[in-house]
Amino acid sequence: MLRPRISSPPVLTAVTSYDIGKFIHVVAVVVGIGATYSYGVILGYVERQAPKSVPSIYTSLQRTDRFIVTPGLIVILLAGLWLVNKGDISMGESWVMVGLVAVIALLGLTHAYFAPRWRKGIELAKRDLKKGNKLIGMEWKFICDKLVINITNKLTT
């Protein structure tokens, strides 16, 4: 004879504000920084296969930096600082300082280094495309190579 199965009621765990803060912090990392991982693939493909699209793609990536990466980095910074305060974690912890320096460095790189190069790349690509269907300028190629190399370095550090 079969006995009725006795099961315990589901247990709900308490979700704290700290848990929500961690969730926001992790989502900001995935969205804000994750977007940049596709840049190298996109640039490599477009430059070789669809050169007429380069100015539009560069503009799109520039806007991604401005409207996704930068706000993401700001949310990462603010959520991280809130988590340190709320979690009673010392700012002197090495992993906290490494994260803080990394976010500030990425913000600086995004605006002081990459933004001017996006603008210059767009300008040079448009100039070259007006002369024909190819991206021919050595100056444009130099800027593009520097962007791809530095984006790759940014992602791997």
Describe this structure in words.
The chain has 157 residues and is mainly alpha-helical. The protein has one domain (18-156). Helix content is 76%, strand content 0%. It has five helices and no strands. The chain has helices spanning 17-34, 39-49, 54-86, 94-131, 138-156. Helix 1 (17-34) runs antiparallel to helix 3 (54-86), helix 2 (39-49) packs antiparallel against helix 3 (54-86) and helix 3 (54-86) runs antiparallel to helix 4 (94-131). The longest helix has 38 residues, at 94-131. The chain is elongated. The model has no long low-confidence stretch (mean pLDDT 85).
The strand count comes to 0
Q: State Rg.
A: 23 Å
What is the H-and-E element order?
A: HHHHH
How would a crystallographer describe the biggest sheet?
Answer: none
Number of helices: 5
Shape: elongated
Task: Determine the structural class based on helices, strands and strand pairing.
Answer: mainly alpha
What proportion strand?
Answer: under 5%
| Average pLDDT score | 85
Uncertain stretches of 5 or more adjacent residues: none
Question: What is the first-to-last residue Cα distance?
Answer: 64 Å
Present the secondary structure layout.
Blueprint lengths: L16 H18 L4 H11 L4 H33 L7 H38 L6 H19 L1
Features:
157 residues; mainly alpha; 5 helices; 76% helix; elongated
What would a concise description of this structure say?
With 157 residues, the chain is mostly helical. It has one domain (18-156).
